[in-house]
Every structure is written in C-alpha cells, then in structure tokens.
Specification:
This protein is of the alpha+beta class and about 150 residues long. The protein has two helices and nine strands. It has a single domain (about 15-140), classed as tt1808, chain A (Alpha-Beta Complex).
Length: about 150
C-alpha cells in the first residue's frame, strides 16, 4: 500500500505499513521502518530526488546527522558527502505546513557553520530553496545542485 500526497517532487513509491493505526515507511538506507510523520514523508521524497536527479550515491547520504551547536546536540535532516567524505549538501526538511522562510534558512546556516557544506537545500515538499555557500555569504540557486563524484 502506498499513500500519496501533493508533493512537489517527482513521484516516488513509498513502502508503507500500518501498525495499530500508525503508518510506517521503509527507509532503505537505514534498513528499517520509521513512523511516517509529515516531515519524514518530505525526507523520503527529498532523498529519492537527491539520488535520482542530483547524482547522490545512497551510501553517501546520512540522515539525522549529529551537529554540535555551542555544546547542544542538534541533528541535520540530511547530509550528502562528496568523494572526500566532506559534507557537500545539507538538506533541512520541514513538514508541508511549515513555511520555508528566513528562520528555516537561519537554522540550516547555523548547522552549516559546523558542517561547511557547499550547498544548503530547504524543503517542505512544496517549496524548495537551494543556496550555495560563497566566500562572503550564500547565493540563491535556480536549480538543485548536481553532485560530481
């Protein structure tokens, strides 16, 4: 059974099971079922897109990657590593009802002060913002970045 939703990513078949009325989605990267929250649905679509359209290799993707911000443990939703095992893309996923705004960008930029990824992608499944880190700031991109290994 696959649940569909209006997501602004190419169609992706999600493997879903229902247990005691709760939906769980199969995560092939971690090899387990996860509670299918709205944010998790966005994460599943974003990962599928990173692999199918941006060139990310499944083994180069980390989820809920630990980031220490001023002694406080945080988690980046998705980090894609390059061939040198350095963060290339940081993806911050939000539930569809959460607006992608300056506060979401600020959160991702805070994570990126530790990670140093070249690109940041913000998505709520409907709205996407891709930026590239430059020497001085971040610049908005017109398209998702491609990963070259």
């Amino acid at each position: 059974m696959a649940t569909t939703t209006q997501i602004n990513f190419p169609a992706t078949e999600l493997q879903i099971k229902v247990v005691n009325g709760d939906e769980f989605v199969w995560d092939p990267l971690r090899g387990k079922y996860l509670l299918l929250t709205p944010e998790e649905r966005v994460r599943r679509y974003a990962i599928a897109f990173l692999i199918s359209h941006c060139g990310a290799m499944p083994h180069s993707i980390a989820q809920e990657y630990a980031v220490n911000i001023n002694g406080t443990a945080q988690r980046a939703d998705i980090v894609v590593f390059n061939r040198n095992i350095k963060p290339e893309i940081l993806v911050e996923c939000k539930a569809p009802e959460v607006k992608i705004d300056k506060s979401v960008l600020a959160q991702a930029v805070r994570y990126n002060t530790v990670l140093g990824a070249k690109y940041i992608i913000l998505t709520n499944g409907h709205q996407h913002l891709c930026v590239e880190r430059t020497e001085a700031d971040y610049k908005i991109l017109k398209a998702f970045p491609k990963i070259i290994y």
